Amino acid sequence: MNTVELIRKKREGGSLGENELRYLITGYIRDEIPDYQMSAFLMACYFKGMNPEETLSFTRLMLESGETVDLSEISGIKVDKHSTGGVGDKVSLILAPMAAACGVPVPMISGRGLGHTGGTLDKLESIPGFRTNLTIPEYKHIIRDTGAVMIGQTKEIAPADKKMYALRDVTATVECIPLIAGSIMSKKLAEGIDALVLDVKTGRGAFMRTLDQSIQLAKTLVDIGTGFGKETIGFITNMNQPLGSAVGNWLEVAESVHCLRGELGSNDSSSDLMEVTYTLSGAMLFLGKKAKSIEDGIEKCRKSISDGSAYKKLLDLVQAQGGNIEAIKNLESYPLSEFSIEIKSSEQGFIGNIDPFEIGMAGILLGAGRQKIDDVIDPKAGIVLKKKTGDAVNAGDPLAIFYTDREEVISEVRKRISDAFKIQPVQPQRQPMILKIVDKDGVRK
User: Fold this and answer.
1) What predicted TM-score, i.e. pTM, was given to this entire model?
2) Which distant-in-sequence residues (6+ apart) come within 8 Å of 204 by Cβ?
3) Whether residue 258 lies in the annotated active site
4) Catalytic residue flag (residue 268)
5) Domain-by-domain residue ranges, the chain?
6) 3-49 has CATH 1.20.970.10 classification
7) Catalytic residue among 90, 187, 188, 201
8) Catalytic residue among 22, 168, 201, 219
9) Of 39, 65, 183, 345, which residue is the catalytic one?
10) Is 335-424 in the same CATH topology as 3-49?
């Protein structure tokens, strides 16, 4: 086969067979196909897409590029959750210990930031000492003893995806349904799960901007999961403003800790975060046979917050993976950024919108994300929102505070965050956070 011919075939809208896809993926893993040719193939996929058979073959080949973990020796129905990526999305940090505290084993293989969105691994690694690069035996040991484990891809698990994932981030080929589906499901199917809950974001801060795109992605993911014999349920959730109040790695860890401690009230800026988290974790308990319904699962998860068991599970997880639990217990001891800048409102009214894409891009400028594959993340950098959509605001009120060690970006970031806040004279109607449920039976409210 000829790589250039296969790129041209896809560029012209043709469908690649499993052997042709195997040639490309195997060649890329072996460094026989260089980054620039794989980039061209990914861009062709971005514009021309893949049909369902190609998508399933692509996923299977990514999965078969490595090994599948066998967790059959661990009792219980193993359930994971995956998000398609958003701004301020620290749901996994709260959900995994919460579901585990309720008796559902949670094997979670997470990714790094993509584009304007943050990555769970980057957030976890902001905890001093926390190890995400565990071996498969360590992975099994921790989930057996702790009930949850949160790691990155090992060299054994979907190595083709690991290499391609970083390339997609810096070649503007992230927002492609077959590539997203193949990447997500190859990792999830390899980690030893029995069931999967999906959080498919939609809106300005998501990779899928429209509801129709998000439903299409959710249906693709559910079809793949079901096709591989895993019970899979997806939720379409709102990403038209940052989720919660913090954007940036350690800042999001700190917000998650406050949520797990039950220190946030119902009117707090993290209430949208907890609404999504409770729904997804309730579904995990339902699929894990620890709740009679999603609603019953939600109530059990709320109890794990009120009785302290979810927070204790977080401490157990951090300790098991080498993290410093004193940093979690004493959040104020964490190092501070050199610069902390407050953004104030210039007018009175109501917050009509906070553009999550602009907030996410501002976070990258501050050092909280990557512009190139080899960029080093500053775990301290980020943004804390002081107002959310619908809040009343007076001239001079703080809208946000941002943190960075990069003095040269302060002026640009100040403008970017200020412009992200849209203030209007009339209070906007509250948007629902959970928009649709997608499962093997279709799409419903």
Assistant:
1) 0.90
2) 239, 240, 355, 356, 357
3) no
4) no
5) 3-49, 79-330+434-444, 335-424
6) yes
7) 187
8) 168
9) 183
10) no
